[in-house]
Design goal:
The complex is a heterodimer of chains A (242) and B (130). Chain A is built from eight helices and twelve strands. Chain A is α/β, with parallel strands linked by helices and 242 residues long. Chain B has a single domain, classed as Immunoglobulin-like. Chain B has one helix and eight strands; from the N terminus they run αββββββββ. The chains are: A alpha/beta (242), B mainly beta (130). Chains A and B meet through helix 1, helix 7 and helix 8 of A and loops of B.
Chain lengths: 242, 130
Amino acid sequence: MQISKKSSKENILLVGFPSNGLVGTFTISYLVHHLKMKQIGEIEHPDLPPTLFVEDGEILPPIRIYKKNNLFVILSDLPFDPFVAYDFAESILDYSKKNQIKKIIIISGMETVNKDPKSPKIFGLVTHKSLEKLLYDYEISKFLAGSIFGTDAAMITAFRKSKIPALILYAECHPFFPDPEASVVAITTLARVLNVKVDTTDIQKKIEWLRIQHRNLMEETIRSLQQHQQEKKPGRAPQIYR
Amino acid sequence: MVKNKDKFKIRIFPSTISSLLSDDIDKQILSPLSCLQEFETNWLLEFDLPLVNKKDIKITFDENSISVEAKLKEIYSEEKFGVKTKFEYFKKMLTLPGKIDSKKAFAKFTKGRLTITIPKIISGHKIKIK
């Protein structure tokens, strides 16, 4: 992967965490790997299950911060429950302010009714009007209607009240199964927005393996998303059928 | 875990107790992800079966349970409890809700996803509106 000379010099933060189809996790991990980004920090939270990864004898925390030139990345390998999601969003906002981040880009997945399995689409949502031009420039369909819950919603809530604009790229995906194929579309779109060249051959070759390897993370993510949905259920309201 | 710096790799999430129990290490059987959705006239059951060819899938109904078994087209290896384990099959049995017409069920397999549509048996009686 090469960064084009035309790349913007403003600080940009990319954020990925487990959500629908694990699209954010696959996309951001792939970019970190291909850009050979350096880990510069980590995020801890007392309510997260104590989890560490060991790779070649090196201990890795589940939420890591990477940097290369003007590009920052925060990547979580753990899904969040509703309480941790708000803290996570606030800590990212705080980090963005301290590091003069000019915009953040969140990658996630969404289930759509009329999905074309041959070519998943990308939808964009922006928290500030200043980023709307970006949707037109890169021909990204605007996310017009629907509901958002989980960590995505916590992030949008935090950033829409701040001065730092956020672009959320949603790739159409299967909501309950890992969908690395959808993340290929997300990687391609993100590369265009960042003005970098990216070869997706590696991930395309490994699609089937990634789906098997990430069954556990998908299960954990669905559990977390269900917790978020339960949080939104009204307590004494009658059941409404439709 | 062997690291190959030239290949893209994502950290594999550690297995939970429940997921560890669902894979059968001795028989080299993986438990596939599945989901069940209810519609007005049918149930839609989906299985994620990557690394599988259509001809190697076997679906069996037994009263209100369904069993899906599939041979992987290549051996899948994973580290469990610090031991490298090889898997050759996917297998899962699920209990379905009552009143289904299994004889009219049909299945499709596209891009490693198996979808089984199972019609409901619609029964009941009319009531008058006064």
